Amino acid sequence: MRIQPEEQTAIVSTITKFDKESEIYLFGSRLDDTKRGGDIDVLVKSDVISRGMLARIEDELFRKIDEQKIDFVLTRKNELTSFSKMVLAKGAVQLW
């Protein structure tokens, strides 16, 4: 997994500030230790966080870590999108 411990902590603490019951997963190229670069792909399962809140989450997150490309995928806990199901099936790593 190619994110620094402080990045993982910042991602989890920022998202859980908005919803302590959320589930947070890392997926995509950052799971492959043989690759370099790439954005940070984060799947958030939450019944509280809205798409509008993601911009605030990202702003707050960039106060904690260096600004970089982070892609958030948001889904409801009991209403997973097809894309979310695929992400989870391909081996996303749960951060929280």
Instruction: Order the strands across the largest sheet as they lie in space.
Output: 3-2-1-4
Mean pLDDT: 92
Tell me the structural class.
Answer: alpha+beta
| Beta-strand share of residues | 15-25%
Gyration radius over CA: 13 Å
Total count of strands? 4
> What is the ordering of alpha helices and beta strands?
HEEHEHE
Question: What does the model show?
Answer:
The structure is a single chain. By secondary structure, the protein is an alpha+beta fold. Helix content is 35%, strand content 20%. The protein has 3 helices and 4 strands; from the N terminus they run αββαβαβ. The chain has helices spanning 5-18, 51-62, 82-89; strands at 23-27, 40-45, 70-75, 93-94. The radius of gyration is 13 Å and the shape is globular.
Compact description:
With 96 residues, the protein is α+β, with helices and mostly antiparallel strands. Helices cover 35% and strands 20% of the residues. It is built from 3 helices and 4 strands; from the N terminus they run αββαβαβ.
